[in-house]
Amino acid sequence: MTKFMPEPFKIKSVEPMYFISDERREAAIQEAGFNTFLLKSKDCYIDLLTDSGTSAMSDKQWAGLMVGDEAYAGSENFYHLEEVVKEHFGFKHLIPTHQGRGAENILSTLTIKPGDYVPGNMYFTTTRFHQERNGATFVDVICDEAHNPDLADVPFKGNVDLAKLQKLIDEVGGDKIPYICLAVTVNLAGGQPVSMANIKAVSELCHKHGIQVMYDATRCVENAYFIKEREAGFEDKSIKEILFEMFSYGDGCTMSGKKDCLTNNGGFLCVNDDELFAEAKGMVVQFEGMPSYGGLAGRDMEAMAIGIKESVEFDYISHRVNQIRYLGERLDAAGVPMVKPYGGHAIFLDARAFLPHLDQQQLPAQALAAAIYRTSGVRTMERGIVSAGRDVKTGENHVPKLETVRLTIPRRVYTYAHMDYVADAIIELYKNRESIKGLEFVFEPKVLRFFTGRFEEI
Ligand code: PM9
């Protein structure tokens, strides 16, 4: 049997892509201040910046756009989305938002009081931003293994370390912790999953102390796939059943629909608590729109409802994870250092091991992402010291153990042939890695600096 089964779709509509000349790439990376976020899309040959909003929609989703009910209130598509979310996630209440951070804003504003603590299994940029904006201190309670890129045999590197969580509860008390943000999978750990056993244990511990369990559900289908593949007792369960069980232990979630819901736009907040739901409805009308659309068009909600159903199809999700594994294995065979095991949405290159001649203060991941673009036209993203930002209290740089470049694979967009191009380009660059110079900031924005910061070669 073929190890890597072909793409589980036929191509019905195509978007041409063009190779970018050496001269244009060189000019483009200079114009972008060595920040791949600032490159123009037309200057990118293969775009692995993110898997957010970059999915290819199916024929059924495109057809769904045509049945968009664009009524200001009570759109048919909202009721469809509500039904699908209830069937797959199981939470009692749904509030659509324009994207994930819209939901993060509502949840953090309504539940956090200044001086609170929000534990999480590793930070995410926008998520921590909203927690801190509302006066909370984020506390990382992920297991130590998650910070080590080389531990390839740990199947659930996204797991919460229960001792770390217990220690925080003992130190500050449950009443200072409105919720735990439980990410499934964990983006910045390299797309690593959380086991069902760990989810259950976290839920028990939190609920014992009156702490709500709020999932960051952004890549929850990938998490369900890893549970099916790696956790005893789940091999015969469907992805949908596993997903439903994962959420049955919690109190709500924030969701960026732009990832596992297979859409180009959208997100939502789910909660079980009636009072919190009432307050969230009061807030969504101030910042997003009516509670029955939350910043989305009816057609977007329809595409999201259909996308959720497609995302739990086994052929889709197994191809997705295996395409990433394929890229990982090709790079690994050439000795390119990476976070292992391979994640659910991306390969994360270990920039410090790739560029041992650079100190972390010389921004090796930012430099590597720029060099990959410069030499191949492949756009990737820094996920290291630049993304980590500064401590809000001390102003000092956060210094993450993982200094990575993320090769993020959009869903249903690229084929194995594209992965070969990417692998060849990075392997070639790895042979010439000594030529890559470090970078320094020439413009550093105060918040979420990785999006718009500018750099110069040292
Ligand atoms: N993630 C990503 O590329 C897009 C923006 S940050 C560069 O990985 C998690 C785990 C995410 C995420 C976005 C959000 C926010 C929340 N949690 O982008 O607002 O990966 O829809 O979601 C990005 P929105």
From TrEMBL:
Pfam families: Beta_elim_lyase
N6-(pyridoxal phosphate)lysine modifications at: 259
Keywords (A to Z) from UniProt: Lyase, Pyridoxal phosphate
Database matches in Gene3D superfamilies: Aspartate Aminotransferase, domain 1 (3.90.1150.10), Type I PLP-dependent aspartate aminotransferase-like (Major domain) (3.40.640.10)
InterPro entries, sorted: ArAA_b-elim_lyase/Thr_aldolase, Beta-eliminating_lyase, PyrdxlP-dep_Trfase, PyrdxlP-dep_Trfase_major, PyrdxlP-dep_Trfase_small, Tyr_phenol_ly
Reaction(s) catalysed by this chain's protein: L-tyrosine + H2O = phenol + pyruvate + NH4(+)
Membrane spanning residue stretches: none
Catalytic class of the enzyme: lyase
CC cofactor: pyridoxal 5'-phosphate
Domain Aromatic amino acid beta-eliminating lyase/threonine aldolase: 47-424
EC code(s) of this entry: 4.1.99.2
SUBUNIT field: Homotetramer.
Similarity annotation: Belongs to the beta-eliminating lyase family.
Protein name (record): Tyrosine phenol-lyase
